[in-house]
Amino acid sequence: MITVWVDRDSVAMGDDVESHEVAWEFEDHACAGDVLDRVLSSHYLASVSGDVSWSLNLGRFDVMPREDYTSIRAVETRVAAVVHVPLHGSSDVITLSSRLLFQPLVRMPQWAVSEGVYAVDFTYSSEGALLSESRFRSWLRNDEPRRRAIASP
Fold first, then answer.
1. Enclosing H/E stretch for 79
2. Complete edge-to-edge strand list for the sheet that includes strand 2-8
3. pLDDT by position in tens, the chain (length 153)
4. Alpha helices, H only, 16-62
5. CA-CA distance, 59 to 75, in Å (whole number)?
6. Pairing of strands 22-26, 2-8
7. What predicted TM-score, i.e. pTM, was given to this entire model?
């Protein structure tokens, strides 16, 4: 068996009150895709009153036990998938690297925190939206006030 530490960003100040770190046990042949599957089936990712996206980060992490929680800090990571969570309906997964999602974690010894221990992290994008190409172009053209506000010094 291997242990995978999972962490996610907080989505609001009230969400900061408790730690999000969990340690899950998996079979030795488990891959990051198996971790993502458990994250989705357990509803681990927070939802809010709007569309959001979560990036699954894989790689090297420092995992440091503290008195009341465990600190997980990314050292060198890559995004392997994005999970889009709409306001209504079910989540969509966009795979960015099938190789990283299917690779058994034990075959990535450079990612091990210690023998048989790995970590993954989910980062939050509060304005994540799933748009078709035409909807994206329309959105880009029709949101001129936001573009001006972001571009002004």
1. strand 70-85
2. 22-26, 2-8, 117-125, 52-65, 70-85, 92-95
3. 999 999 887 766 555 556 678 899 999 999 999 999 999 999 888 777 778 899 999 999 888 877 777 777 888 999 999 998 887 878 889 999 999 999 999 999 999 988 899 999 998 887 777 888 988 888 777 766 665 655 555
4. 32-41
5. 8
6. antiparallel
7. 0.82
